[in-house]
Amino acid sequence: MPDECSLAVEVTTSPLLEGVPHGFLGRAGGLSTGIYAGLNVGLGSDDEHDIILENRHRAKAAVLPDSQLLTVHQVHSADVVTVGKGFAIDADTERPHADAMVTDRPGYLLGILTADCVPVLFYDPVAQVIGAAHAGWKGALGGVTDNIITAMEKLGAVRENIMCAIGPCIAQGSYEVDVGFRQHFVTDDPVNERFFEAGRPDHFHFDIEAYVVHLLTIAGIKKIDALGLDTYTNEDRYYSYRRSCHRGEAGYGRQISLIGLR
């Protein structure tokens, strides 16, 4: 792995969201070392707290320097926070427990942390309303994408105008699940069977990115950019919870996806 500290912060953007400050960040450009090497922004990790805060500062500076970075305490829910006044970013206990945020206020930079789950950035260019969602399998199945669209509409967004970009997440070939996992989705909707590919006996590979695209499409979102970046196999660029588990590592880093209004 290259020396992450010597690299600039890498910001991957979507042409679909051109005109709004945003980006999907990876490992490059951070101060963390060891298993967290790079731009680890996870307050829930055992990385050094001051280094995490500096990494967060670098992430903000790379996308919208004069903004206030906001993140939530993610709990794999379908809950959405509407941001009016800001809330603390430097203490784990002071952030709302939720997995998505929306706002129409300039000066805020919404940040979602992931390490295999699906980060989704939302933008209505007409109403100037933005959103960011952490769509793990539980949150996606529970309706986090539907809930964030509804929350944006309450701020004046129109779903036909909303555009979405899906950032780095675990790819189908890297995401092996068992029969019970698959059954959750097939029971919810038989059409979900198409997101599972048979693997070794009693196991399947789940395409969570395609599943989230499907959810957005049936919700009425017409413009979706799925970047197709695999966190598991791209070790030099991204953290991966599953990869760390497979290696028996003591912890794992988190990358951040950001969107804000000037």
What's this model, at a glance?
By secondary structure, the chain is of the alpha+beta class. Helix content is 23%, strand content 24%.
Topology:
Elements: E1 11-12, E2 22-25, H1 49-63, E3 68-71, E4 80-82, E5 100-103, E6 108-114, E7 118-124, E8 129-135, H2 137-142, H3 144-154, E9 163-166, E10 176-178, H4 179-188, E11 196-198, E12 203-206, H5 208-218, E13 223-226, H6 241-247, E14 255-260
Parallel strand pairs: 3-6, 4-5, 9-13
Antiparallel strand pairs: 1-2, 2-14, 5-8, 6-14, 7-8, 7-9, 10-12, 11-12
List the defining traits of the structure above.
CNF1/YfiH-like putative cysteine hydrolases, 262 residues, 23% helix, 6-stranded mixed beta sheet, 24% strand, disordered N terminus, single chain, alpha+beta
Can you walk me through this structure?
The protein has 262 residues and is of the alpha+beta class. The protein has a single domain, classed as 4-Layer Sandwich (CNF1/YfiH-like putative cysteine hydrolases), CATH 3.60.140.10. The chain contains six helices and 14 strands. The strands form three sheets. A six-stranded mixed β-sheet has the order 4-5-8-7-9-13. Strands 1-2-14-6-3 form a five-stranded mixed β-sheet, with helices on one face. A three-stranded antiparallel β-sheet has the order 10-12-11.
